[in-house]
Amino acid sequence: MAKLQNDLFLRACRREETERTPIWVMRQAGRYLPEYRAVREQSDFLTMCKTPELAAEVTIQPVDLIGVDAAIIFSDILVIPEAMGMELEMIESKGPVFHNPVRDKSSADKLKTIDPSTDLKYVMDAVALTKRELNGRVPLIGFCGSPWTLLTYMAEGGGSKNFSHVKKMIFNEPELAHSILDKLADVSAAYLSAKIEAGADAVQIFDTWGGNLSQRDFREFSLRYIEKIIANTKRTNQPVIVFSKGVHHSLGSIANCGADVIGLDWTMDIGEVRREVGSRAALQGNLDPTVLYASHDNIRLRAREVLDSYGHGTGHIFNLGHGILPDVPPENLKALVDFIKTESNSYH
Amino acid sequence: MAKLQNDLFLRACRREETERTPIWVMRQAGRYLPEYRAVREQSDFLTMCKTPELAAEVTIQPVDLIGVDAAIIFSDILVIPEAMGMELEMIESKGPVFHNPVRDKSSADKLKTIDPSTDLKYVMDAVALTKRELNGRVPLIGFCGSPWTLLTYMAEGGGSKNFSHVKKMIFNEPELAHSILDKLADVSAAYLSAKIEAGADAVQIFDTWGGNLSQRDFREFSLRYIEKIIANTKRTNQPVIVFSKGVHHSLGSIANCGADVIGLDWTMDIGEVRREVGSRAALQGNLDPTVLYASHDNIRLRAREVLDSYGHGTGHIFNLGHGILPDVPPENLKALVDFIKTESNSYH
């Protein structure tokens, strides 16, 4: 494989010295880019995930167009439950829908045991192809959802406001919930291992719904399984990033669960978290994604506040506090990326 | 007016000794009660708000049926923008909709200056009637939305996922946002003053969307105006409760803004917050509302964890960490209330 020309992101993940702060943004291969929408118009979302050429194309777009310091493979966290036998449909206006939600033992028993390296071979092919096409320009990130977040979608049958089905399961049938979560953790570890084998330079675990749990339930039903994934993922020196949205109460615990990097949402003061976490992990984040609606001057002002809050030294990967929104003008993201690339050297 | 027979709630708000922990729950006058749904079937939501007899009836239902220690007047935070000229529609499946959102100076200029004691006289009549009908059984709470939360609904035109319109306003036209927020704070202070004049024994400010702001934006665009409401509300010894969801970063600041009681969502450890806030404020909360889906044994177990976390002594008002969900069986809430009423005396 081609030697990496820009390994700032990986060095920052490992808290090694860098000459400036690296930047990438969640959902950077996404709808805010006209070039993405052009591909999407020709093909539905899941077909894009399952066609390595298309996945590679949109994965690389933000590297070419915006100049980010890392690529993240275009895919979806729900390909795992789909491969396990759930019928997944992506409805543009509504988000993902599972037509056969898992809410009891009989539907859980129907979940297939899978081998991600073969059953999700299309993902590994997309990773391998993207690595080749990136040709060492920037590192490639692989990802999966946390077992808790997957179970939430699987039980609710899609997005949710009140999370009533999955909460009923953990309160009334905790053994059932644990057995599914455990199975998902095993599959996810094998999945991330296969992605690393295929060429991913780092992996991120997205725990989008961790913040809907109380502190004690987060630890029992989400963090425990994130920890299991990290422990069982085969890797040499590929960093693991854990992004758990809304879990202000457990960032120190995440730092102890084996994560190299903790992703922060925009409600956290990144400097305060740095003082709490210390040398245990690097931090990724955490500009409010809606700041990208502002003027370029304002974007730079707010980005500088994040750099100032983190302060001097290594271990910071600049990112948004959540995914980039689909109606953000791409030139606003470009203004952010250019600012970080030119101004962050004074923090190093 | 009839002397209060049960003033546990008010004494706990003032951090005075009580023989047990008082309990009420947010949205207790709501759809989970068949008796509420029977009234609602005869009348639309806004008509219920605007008809003092109906508002009083559903306000008192949970006092009669569940045995809570406080009543909260049935109403909606959006009656203020409606009285200021916005066209409000409550759509059962969708939530509130404003057909003429406020997104620029010209639409903001159209907002009428109102006198809540006359323009929202129906609310004051409902408060006065409910007080009479309660006949001193329990205290009555009045409420309003925070200016930030009202502005969010007004700019988005209803509920929102990404809050793009209101965020664009604060980032790109902050002076416009501040002028509307300031106006809303003045109206809200007059509104709470009139409710107290009409008989409310305490008031709560609901800042449902405070948690969508970063820490610095929360202080500039939400907390500042909550503080202004509290400073300008005419009261003798009626406590003010501030419930700002998702603002884990600013609970200490809320304690300094004049609030007597801080409402906590279920992501907080109430004992940790007590140690941080100290004697500055009482705390209200904070059981995960979805725990009410569990068995009665489990509800009691989880409720005891909240009591244990708060620990011994005064200043705790038991509540959920958010509103009760519409599909909770009323007998589950009854089990919670009974448990707190019989078991919390050992914490006092």
Task: Describe the structure concisely for a colleague.
The structure is a homodimer of 348-residue chains. Chain A is α/β, with parallel strands linked by helices and 348 residues long.
In CATH terms, what is the architecture of chain A?
Alpha-Beta Barrel
Largest beta-sheet details of chain A? 7 strands, parallel
Low-confidence parts of chain A lasting 5 or more residues at pLDDT below 50? Answer: none
Oligomer: homodimer
**Can you tell me the number of structural domains of chain A?**
1
Report the end-to-end length of chain A measured between terminal Cα atoms.
30 Å
Proportion of residues in helical segments of chain A? 40-55%
Topology overview:
The structure is a homodimer of 348-residue chains.
Chain A: H1 8-13, H2 34-41, H3 45-50, H4 52-65, E1 71-72, H5 79-83, E2 88-91, E3 95-98, H6 105-109, H7 116-119, H8 121-134, E4 140-145, H9 147-156, H10 164-172, H11 174-198, E5 202-207, H12 215-232, E6 240-244, H13 251-255, E7 261-263, H14 270-277, E8 282-287, H15 296-310, E9 316-320, H16 330-343
Parallel strand pairs in A: 1-4, 4-5, 5-6, 6-7, 7-8, 8-9
Antiparallel strand pairs in A: 2-3
